[in-house]
Amino acid sequence: MADPIEKGVTRRHTFFCTDRQRHSSETTVIDVVPKTITVFGREVSGWIVTTEEPVIDKTITLAEALDDVGVRHDPE
Asked: Is 28 helix (H, G, I), strand (E, B) or coil?
């Protein structure tokens, strides 16, 4: 059987955080902007962080999709 075809894709996430080292240590950081927001009347200082993470997009062949039909029950 031939190896499945895979191609790399990246996905960007933008979020507010108060501890940018904790949230950006394991990903590629694209942009960091200091920001102060108001939460329940209290000002909170933090950062708007944009990260980029790799995602694998796999092309599934028809034969692979029909293999073991009814045996595996993927909840997703």
From this structure: strand
CB 10 within 8 A of CB 54: yes
Q: Taking Cα atoms as reference points, which of 1, 4, 6, 32 lies closest to residue 19?
A: 32
Domain boundaries, the chain: 5-66
Global pTM value: 0.58
- In order of 15, 25, 27, 39, 51, the CA distances from 43 in angstroms are 17, 25, 28, 6, 24
Bridge partner residues of 52 (DSSP)? 12, 28
**Tens-digit pLDDT profile for the chain (76 aa)?**
445 555 667 888 899 999 877 766 777 888 999 999 999 999 999 999 998 888 877 777 777 777 765 555 555 5
